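Why do we care about 3D structure at all? Because function follows from shape, and shape follows, mostly, from sequence. That is the central idea of this module. The next example makes it concrete: a single protein chain, its amino acid sequence, and then its structure expressed as tokens.
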Amino acid sequence: MRWRYHKEVSWRTSSSKLSRYDIQKELETAQKEYWEQTLLPKVLEAEDPEIFSDNSTQTFTENIRQVLKESEKMQISFEADIKRQLKKFGDEKHFLVNTPAEEVLKGFPDVELKWMFGQKEVAVPKAASLHLFHGWKKWREEAKANLKRDLLENKDYGRDYMTRRQERILLDRERVMTKTWYNDDRNRWEMDPVAVPYAVSKKLIESARIRHDWAVMYVALKGDDKEYYVDIKEFDLLFEDFGGFDGLYMRMLASGIPTIVQLMWIPLSDLDIRQQFLLMAQLSRECLFGLWNSSIFSYVRQRAFSKIKNITDDIMVVIVFPLLELIIPKQVRMSLGMAWPEEAYQAVGSTWYLKWQSEAEINYKARKRDNIQWYLWFLIRSAIYGFVLFNVLRYLKRKIPRLLGYGPFRRDPNLRKLQRVKAYFQFKINRRIRRKKEGFDPIRSAFDQMKRVKNPPIRLNDFASVDSMREEINDIVTCLQNPTAFKEKGARAPRGVLIVGERGTGKTSLALAIAAEAKVPVVEVKAQQLEAGLWVGQSASNVRELFQTARDLAPVIIFVEDFDLFAGVRGQFIHTKKQDHEAFINQLLVELDGFENQDGVVLMATTRNLKQIDEALQRPGRMDRVLHLQRPTQLEREKILRIAAKETMDSELIDFVDWKQVAEKTTLLRPIELKLVPLALEGSAFRSKFLDTDELMCYCSWFVTLSYCIPTWLRRTKPVQNINRFLVNHLGLVLTKEDLQSVIDLMEPYGQISNGIEFLSPPIDWSRDAKLPHAVWAAGRSLMALLLPNFDVVDNIWLEPTAWEGIGCTKITKAKNEGSVNGNLESRSYLEKKLVFCFGSYVASQLLLPFGEENFLSSSELKQAQEIATRMVIQYGWGPDDSPAIYVTSNAVGTLSMGKNHEFEMAARVEKMYNLAYDKAKELLQKNRPVLEQIVEQLLMFENLTGHELANILEKHGGIPEQEPFSLSENYHKELPLGISLQNTENAAVIELLDAAA
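And the structure:
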């Protein structure tokens, strides 16, 4: 140190030529600062930056020497006193004891010297520390006083002191700030754990906040508004040998740093069921106690109790006490302690009853008013009090026996149920007998149930499949709204409407929609209300009464469902051969086109088979308005899907769905089935999410519990909906457009998916050899569909080992054209392509599978090819020789009579078409064998190929698709001789089909 200072002074002397006095002054100042900052803390084992030495070094040295002497004297005197006072307890012993770490951090010495005088212990601090402690304390007080005096007297010295102090603080702060940085990913300021003890020792920390659940500490520095993140785990690893974070925490407490330990968040999943129950019980108990002792509840409780006590006292004084005195004799009451003595020789002790009676009478007299208003309120309060008390006692009578473990005597519940059933059947028998005697009026009961439809299942404007019948429906609505409009124009208003359609096409919904649009009531009549009764002609009388009542209540709609059940063709079926049915139809005809005025009365009926209704009812002027409800077209399906989505789906998800694509894949669905598609789409998208089942079930249980408490109007408010969105986002249930689109892509068109072989159980070993035949089957079908021009579209093919329906699947959608909404028309070209397509998998197995390894995967397609070829020749006249003769029709009573040779000729033509298609399929696949092999390899590798990937493979490997015009006749060059004996299975099947048709 001296050499360094000497070198520095020499350099300054050589450079600046200072005087000897200046050099000596600087050396003394440097030595003084060195003693103040280094030697003094080492000697005294403490550091106090607020205290500095005197001006002169000599005074500082004298002070230290004097303090040491005084401390030594005090130590000697102290030890002598201890020995003199404790020697009487026994022999003297000396030993050392380590001070606990937390005491050392608070400023106590690390080693204590203990004396033992027999069984008496005396703890003495470390000798060196004890020698210096009193002197250091005294010198520190004197140094502070001298420092304050020097700062006040010498302004230059004070200014220099403050400058040095600020520089030291800034230097310490800069050292700490070099260990801090900003974390962009976490969006927070962080501090190196190494810098924390230094900041504590330099008293740079203003406050600290500890989060034990996150194992972090947030430190705030003086003069800074930011909090710095400190990792407690990393601090423990670095300072494990020095007490870790616990030692730092004790040191911060000893330094007086404000330290906050925030409450920990304990997840319920870490607690067992008993701990969760105790936690909920404790929280509930604290909440109830807090609510019970709250000021508002205390006020309400006291007021309610006072009101109840007042009304109880009034009732007891006015009613109960006089009633008891009237019923119970006086001697008995005195013996029970319920009456005061009236004679001198009588004595009775003070009982609770008498105290209660006295207090009640005093309370009653203090509040009683002699006016009619007080007595009126007394009667009202007494009635309410009695009603509440009666129901409470009734409830307790029913519940207390169950709580005690036994209940009231009950009969066997099965016996009571049997008695109720017997009574019900007896009631039905008695009612039937009574109605037969009195005469039951079915028409009156039907009109008693007449209703006005305000909210139909589907509004008339929302009906998608009635656009072509709008004019007729508008006429019906106009007739009901203004019955005289048609008569003024000279036209006849519609009297009967037949709604024809399959099950589920919306016949009943259309009738209710018309009634709601016209704003007229509907009378629903069932078959049993018009059936024959006790006498002949009762059904006709019921029809006559039905229309007569309807004319009195016009405008009205008479709605009959399944009209063909009781308005069938007369004499054709068993139930229509009766005399009552003839009278029923005749009376119905009279009511529809008779001379009576039918304005405002419309008979609306539904049926699935128009041919089963008597033709007389369908003639003009009767039920001539027929509304045919067909399966909806693609545009109508799209409209139905959008309307159903508004009712069932989230409004934010409706625009995410390509409804046109969904409508294309729901070709064969009916309107009642289309309503379920949007909800199924949303559910399938949710099932594709990866969710925490335990967390989801926990939230669902809370939702179910709260659903009974939260009213519907509150759920529809914006804050609650925002909370719902937050919970959906938190649970990972937010659906995107990609989620819904993936579900739509995987939709299977109804009736347009073909599977391979069915297994009773999935194969155990899903190897390449097991997959090969199924891959060849799927590849042959898909490639043949790609090669045929203007044919069906291949969506995707896949292999699925866990499927119960089959492990080789192809998804093919019929191509759309302007002529048909459901797919291609059965034109000759399309059937020929279909015939060739049926041989795709069969020819592929012949080309790629080893000899003898062919399987029966293609058996169903070969049967379909046989059926198509037979139908083309026999029903459509599309044979190979272009003969237009048709031998079988679908609605003919019988078939043309053909001889044996002619049947052989037809079989030969069918076989010719069959073989032409097989040759064409073989030719196409042989030309594109590399493409077929590549599709099989890709399918074996990935087990799933889309239509786009198949098209890329076809283009990449030079596939040669067939071109239009497509025909099978040009591929046949050899004429088969007529009369040939057919021995194979195909000809035998054709002959069998011809014999069955004949």
